[in-house]
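Question: Send over one sample?
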Amino acid sequence: MSVLEIKDLHVSIEDKEILKGVNLTMNTGEIHAIMGPNGTGKSTLSAAIMGNPNYVVTQGEVLLDGENILELEVDERARKGIFLAMQYPSEIPGITNAEFMRASINAKRAEDDKISVMNFIKKLDEKMDLLDMPEEMAERYLNEGFSGGEKKRNEILQLLMMEPTFAILDEIDSGLDIDALKVVSKGVNEMRSDDFGALIITHYQRLLNYITPDVVHIMMDGKIVKTGDAELAKQLEAEGYAGISKELGIELAGE
């Protein structure tokens, strides 16, 4: 079992503090969901864990099996088994999907243990079929000209191919119609195992109708203010953030 621990994490952007002491512990074998209003720090948390240089950690730790990964470069964090599916994936012309994924898989493997072309193609065909993706997607340049739904499916394809220890999924449901949402959820559920954990950042209960979380966290004003099981997301849908904030005695921004 691997453990990802976030301890008293404070993060600033351009001297403005966004995260104000986030604490969270997640084990492999678990799927956690973070929900909260816009501007509360959910995406900042994902960026800080992965090492985006625009986000400055001023206090706290992010520990992977006891090692503080905040001291590692982005590529080192990825090789340690951290994966980020971004809300707005970048387009990279000149590099095909297949090339990118094979290079990413091999970057985590020893020089004498690179994945063979045949094994890579077999695995790629299998995962693309699972996600109802046409074969030609593999040879398109990474995210170039992709629709929003294609980008999200492609992020999940990368997840399935790379098999990280922990995945951070930042609003993978954003802009998806119901059919695409079901396919993306199918891919995430395919990864569920004792060797995998996921942190899903979302605004909406609808995603959690298809990916049932073990733990739900509510984030407000840069902190996790309430934690519970899947029923907490249903309570949030029924009461809204205003209801939760009133229950906790927290004033929502803008009120």
